[in-house]
Amino acid sequence: MKILCVAEKPSAAKEIAKILSQEQYRSRSTDEKYIRNMDFDYKLSNNQIVQMTMTSVLGHLLELDFASEYRSWRSCAPIALFDAPIVKSVNKNCVKVERNLCAEIRGVQQIMIWTDCDREGEGIGAEVVEVCRKVNPRITVLRARFSSFTHAEIHHAARNPIQLDMNQAQAVEARSELDLRIGAAFTRFQTLKFQTMFHELDKKVISYGSCQFPTLGFVVDRFQQIQSFVSEDFWRIDVTYAHPDPAEAGHVVQFNWARGRLFDRLFCFVLYEQCVEQPMARVFKVSGKDTSKWKPYPLTTVEMQKVGVRVLRMSSSKIMEVAERLYTRGLISYPRTETDQFDKGFDFRNMIEKQTGDQHWGQFAQGCHLVPSHLAFSMVLLACPAMGKTMTRRILQSIPLGMRTTCRMMNGMFSSLWCVGSLGLVQRMQRGSRRA
């Protein structure tokens, strides 16, 4: 039996083929310079030996557009685009990819989809099936479900395939159709409208995106807030107490002023002067409460990008680019997710075992491997010497072992610096500036 395996991108196809074939595959070139077909034999769970061919696409194969009679901007009113017929065709950049799929699907009994396990991956998988069934309508469709490029998970996915989720695939197509209709209608409307009002826009397109345009509004609002903000000086009194007993050295208490800050310098100075003249203070009440330090939870992709931009000073696109490379090398699990939960069968130990041989933190990784409760607290510092690039190292340093999201950076990954005041009762007045 022959099975055609299709991944979402060439790098993923190569990694999967290496794992399934134990690096014993035969590689063939295609018309598309970025794609190669890899042939090998594989034993299924029932001990049946099958012939597999691993290939890939380059993202989405198909694209939506209006029928030819609606493509001219002045062919109809913009509102008519909400009901205009839509046609689906192969993206002009993927003609060679389609040709390769049509050639490889001949004589194949099954096709196994190895696209990323998210909604977009289901949509791409459905497009692959649609193209292949035009040539071979009798093929059986299988879906390999995996969340990381570890040997155990890839083999489990190959031997326990599921069905393609057409509900998610149809959701992707519906979103694409909405983006096309809304974007085209509003872009035509506001471009044609404003070009008659402002001569500077005669040859310019004022595009509209259902996500980008509202986001631009948030950016503009924040920009206007910053521009209109007027800074104002303020003063506050800080009080710190350190225990006089040398045995208690290091125990420092920082008192918070209930008034917070004052914008009247003279009045703040009067209060400060009273503290200096009467340095003894009385404690009227002492209260305490228990606090819990919870294990670090994985972040969703959006939260990870926010933390990465703010703390690592890297762009969102760069963070995702590096995370994709880490994912295809089997160092982290699938980076695009909207959940902070692990799969029940997620292989934490395999992730940690990759760190046990390192001379710097191998011993720590071994301890984490032996004590399961430490798994969520462990930090991956560097997975292999080949990953020496600064960007890759910075992101990989921020990933808890086994985390499921892109660069699962924990909230407490950066140490806090605690400033200890001088011994005794310290009163000082500080001047600051309130900022947006």
From TrEMBL:
Enzyme class: isomerase
Domain Toprim: 2-147
E.C. number: 5.6.2.1
Positions of transmembrane segments: none
Positions of the Topo IA-type catalytic domain: 165-436
SUPFAM superfamilies registered for this protein in UniProt: Prokaryotic type I DNA topoisomerase
Reactions performed catalytically: ATP-independent breakage of single-stranded DNA, followed by passage and rejoining
Family of the protein in this entry: Belongs to the type IA topoisomerase family.
Protein name stated in the entry: DNA topoisomerase
